[in-house]
Each structure stands twice: as C-alpha cells, then as structure tokens.
Amino acid sequence: MIPRYTRPEMGRHFSDATRYANWLRVEIAHLETLEERGIATPGTAEFLASYGYEATVVHMPSEHKTPDAGALLEAKLVDLVINIPKNYQERELTDDYLIRRKAVDYGIPLLTNIQLANRLAEALSRKTMADLHIKELQAY
To answer: What are phi and psi of 65, to 5 degrees?
Structure first.
C-alpha cells in the first residue's frame, strides 16, 4: 500500500508484520496437524508460544548453556535449520552466523528465507513419507 494514501488503521491490517503473523498462524496449524514438535532457540520459542505452538528450547551458542544449538548441529540431531535474521544486533548476528555455519559444515539443510520456509511447510503438509518413493535415476 502507498503510505500517503493509506489511513493508519487500514495500513496496520496490510503491514508486513500483520501479513507474516497471519502466515505464521497458518503454518503452525499445519505443523500441529502433522503433530511435529520443533526445536527452537529462546526468542523463537517464545514467539511460537505466543501463537500456541510449543517447541523444545535450546540455547544460543553464545550463552554457553546446554542444550546448545551448536552442539545439537555437531551431533547431527537436527534435520533442518530455518534461520531467518530478526535484528541486526552484534550478538544476534554472531549467533545466527555460528548456527548457519555449523549447519553448512555438517551438511544439514538450511533455509534463510521466509518464503522458502513457507513453501516447505506447504509441501510437507501435502505429502507423507509413504507417498515418497525412491526411484532409479533412469526413471527421471
């Protein structure tokens, strides 16, 4: 929307924050129907909890507490990392970098884009493991 032609009360309904909050509600509903339980860092877990989705909390690498996100990545106990920067504070950027770096170093799939995370959640909600079959390369 064009700010100078938009009334403030209407602008709030069409803001990026509102759009992403609504998107998140839909994606959380998808995960709940799949009965998936996620692992999240403290800030993300708190954000998810505000929308009714409980995640297992792990600590940021800079906190030096266990369980630590970096240690879980090193042990390959994580199947997918979704790491979308939320602010530009030095500590946040450093922790995010360490998490992304370890995901790449240990060959764990990494998403850093909210639109890709959205598409993945949609795809996961449409297929089950039973629907996925391994085919020979020539079959493609």
So the answer is: -125, 160
- Determine the structural domain holding residue 103 and report its residue range: 37-127
User: Residue 4 is which amino acid?
Assistant: R
How far is it, in rounded angstroms, from Cα 136 to Cα 111? 28
Question: CATH number for the domain including 105?
Answer: 3.40.50.1380
- Nearest Cα residue to 44 out of 102, 90, 95: 95
Is the dihedral angle over the CA atoms 120, 54, 32, 76 positive or is it negative?
positive
Is 132 part of any domain? no
Tens of pLDDT along the chain (140 residues)? 555 666 776 666 666 677 777 777 777 766 665 556 788 899 888 888 887 888 889 999 999 898 899 999 999 988 889 898 878 889 989 999 999 999 999 999 999 988 888 888 788 778 777 887 888 888 87
Measure the CA angle with vertex 32, ends 28 and 33; round to 5°: 120
| End-to-end CA gap in the chain | 44
